[in-house]
Amino acid sequence: MALKIPPALVFVIIAGLMHLVSLFLPFGSLTLSGAYWVAGLLMVAGGVLGVAGLLQFYRNGTSVDPHKPAEASTLVTDGIYQYTRNPMYLALFFLLIAYASILQNVLNLFILPLFIWYMNKYQIIPEEEIMEEKFSSKYLKYKSEVHRWL
């Protein structure tokens, strides 16, 4: 399995890189009116997505541990999982976009895709492989109907 770094730590690392870019590459800085409002809305959206994803896992009585996807006892396809297969990871991405908005450095827009790339390669694809083995055709059907991110 390719799972390497916990998603929360990946989030912290990317946020740290964004902070360093803002400190050491100030030529990318700009002032955007309403940036804090946008950040606030994204934080709320991220919070709602993340909590909704966790609640659906708890309601279905399955594991929320991202390093032990094989412990999933149920394929969760209801609630927020009708719209995205990865609401908790999407929540982290929304929070990173919010942080980029607060930092107001356009160069951080080039760091955001690193989160998507890493999560796809080292977290989501390995999870999907396990779900395919565990839930076979039911998961393949779900996967064909609901997008990975949005």
Helix percent reads: 55-70%
Number of domains in the coordinates? 1
Estimated share of beta-strand residues: under 5%
Q: Which parts are unreliable, with pLDDT below 50 for 5 consecutive residues or more?
A: none
Topology as a string of helices (H) and strands (E) = HHHH
Biggest sheet character: none
Structural class determined from secondary elements: mainly alpha
Distance between the termini: 25 Å
Principal-axes geometry comes out as elongated
Mean pLDDT: 94
**Total beta strands:** 0
Transmembrane segments: 7-28, 34-58, 89-118
GO molecular function: methyltransferase activity
Membrane topology: Multi-pass membrane protein
Keywords: Membrane, Methyltransferase, Transferase, Transmembrane, Transmembrane helix
Model description:
It comes from Fodinibius salinus. Its main location: membrane. One of its GO terms (biological process) is methylation. It is a multi-pass membrane protein. The protein is mainly α and 150 residues long. It has one domain. It is elongated. It has helices at residues 7-24, 35-59, 87-103, 112-145.
